[in-house]
């Protein structure tokens, strides 16, 4: 089973326990940068995978 490639804004691979999807903070979920190209942080998806919880 191969893991999907991570985008620069991802903290973990999708499906990793203790992680979840969130709106990309760089493009606010649009998937595009200010010049209309795919957002480099989320790879154009509009979401990132980050750790949840804490403590």
Automatic annotation (TrEMBL):
Bias (Gly residues) ranges: 43-55
Residue span of region Disordered: 1-55
Stored InterPro entries: HSP_DnaJ_Cys-rich_dom_sf
Domain of life: Bacteria
UniProt protein name: Molecular chaperone DnaJ
């Amino acid at each position: 089973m191969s893991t999907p490639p991570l985008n620069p804004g991802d903290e973990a691979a999708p499906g990793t326990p203790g992680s979840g999807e969130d709106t990309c903070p760089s493009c606010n979920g649009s998937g595009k940068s200010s010049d209309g190209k795919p957002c480099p942080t989320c790879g154009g998806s509009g979401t990132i995978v980050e750790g949840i919880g804490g403590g």
